[in-house]
Design goal:
This protein has three helices and no strands. By secondary structure, the chain is an all-alpha fold. Helix 2 crosses helix 3. The protein starts with 9 loop residues before the first helix and ends with a helix.
């Protein structure tokens, strides 16, 4: 396994030390790997959200070009629309692929 040297601020050094002392992680490497796994997961989720928003945008402009569309009259309507889109993207990402 490759070895890396990193500089941590006191906050993250203490966080790792606490995780190891509590037994949650066996050593600093395991704690850092757990953090990187979470970062990787977050980046994948962010990319999936961005991809879904791009798809929705393309579909919306195509619908407008065809004279179709939906009306969102308030911030609440917009929030609801976005939440539904994010939930749909999450469901698609979690769905088993054939």
């Amino acid at each position: 396994m490759p070895t890396r040297s990193v500089d941590l601020n006191d906050h993250f050094d203490n966080l790792i030390a606490e995780g190891v002392a509590s037994g949650r992680y066996s050593d600093a490497s395991e704690a850092v790997q757990a953090g990187l796994a979470l970062l990787e997961q977050q980046e994948k989720e962010d990319q999936a959200k961005l991809d879904k928003l791009r798809e929705i945008t393309r579909e919306a402009f195509a619908a407008l070009d065809r004279g179709e569309g939906i009306s969102l009259h308030s911030a609440k309507d917009i929030d609801s629309f976005v939440k539904d889109a994010v939930a749909e993207a999450r469901a698609e990402r979690l769905a088993p692929h054939a």
